[in-house]
Amino acid sequence: MVVFLFILTGIITFINTTSETKLLPLKESDRGVMGGPRSLSNNSPEDYSTPTIFAFSVNQTSLNSSLNMAGDNSSIYYLTDYSSLQNPNSILTGIKTITNGILIYKARKGDTLLSVASDFGISLDTIRWANNLKTDRLTPGQELIILPVSGVLHEVKPGDTVEDIAQIYSASIEKIIAFNNLNGSNLIPGEKIIVPNGRIPKTYKVFAAKSALPEYPYYYVLPTTGFNWGVLHNVNAVDIANYCDTPVFAAAEGLIEVIAYDNSYGKYIKIQHPNNTETLYAHLNKIIVNSGDYVTQGQIIGYMGNTGYVIGNPGCHLHFEIHGAKNPFAK
After folding, report:
1. Where do you find CATH 2.70.70.10 in the chain?
2. Which CATH class, in words, describes the domain spanning 151-196?
3. What is the mean pLDDT of residues 250-261?
4. CA 238, CA 327: separation in Å to the nearest integer?
5. Mean pLDDT across the stretch 250-255?
6. Per-residue pLDDT tens for 302-330?
7. What separation, in Å, do the N-terminal and C-terminal C-alpha atoms of the chain show?
8. Helix axis angle, 124-131 relative to 113-120, nearest 10°?
9. Which among 136, 84, 87 is positioned nearest to 107, based on CA atoms?
10. What is the pLDDT of residues 109-128, one digit of tens each?
11. Omega of the bond prior to 196 within 30 degrees of 0, cis?
12. β-strand pairing of 143-146 with 254-262
């Protein structure tokens, strides 16, 4: 094993010193989480036609490799250290790039939608929307479109404008233009553009009756300290009151899916959990996690506040919702 690693290290060093085109570190790429490939052929660096990916992870004392060799028109993803990935334990296999930082990932045995989203640092909904998934179950060999950021992949239709697209997905016009390198407002029907942080509108018609939801009595922990009013309201929510800046914890492990602000919730966080439920934490004063982070149960994610619409002075409390299960903290 030691001899193999020594030989492999020598090969990488040789390629770097003899090739006119250096290997492109992921973290130095200007396109997305994984970045674009740098071709080793004599073709233009912009030639992204069905490249093969060689992935190396180098971290001083360890070297993990995953090789898939085919032909001369090969491209290399070269990880200079584990910080290039959201999940340093992930092995890059079966990955190819399309364009604009979009990847095709081939699911491996043991993959879940949550683990893939965590590996690439994007939300679960981003993967669901891009692949039109009807279920979160993955099968080995299943190909998934992976966007470089959380958001929506939009196919331009005749008459579409950037302003219209931004309004549909509640996104920033400036970010859409910048991310897709759009010149002017003319869009080409049929082309696909990425809407960073965009969201497909989702409305809760009438929240399911309390008795119709599944129960997970020991799955969640109370996400903060204070007085729990225990009155079920709004979207399966309870309010817990305490002093401003009281720590707020993740009620269960999961992926940070949304960090946002609106006039009602104020600053809020939404977490997607492995049991396919979501929790929402609103009126926060401060948020200390980022979208795409994977958090453990009881981990501090923010601090209680009175942002958004609250009643009373100072009105500090946590509005805590559970989507897809009974709220065990309702009295």
Report:
1. 219-323
2. alpha beta
3. 93
4. 8
5. 94
6. 999 999 988 777 789 999 999 999 999 99
7. 60
8. 110
9. 136
10. 989 888 898 888 888 889 99
11. no
12. unpaired
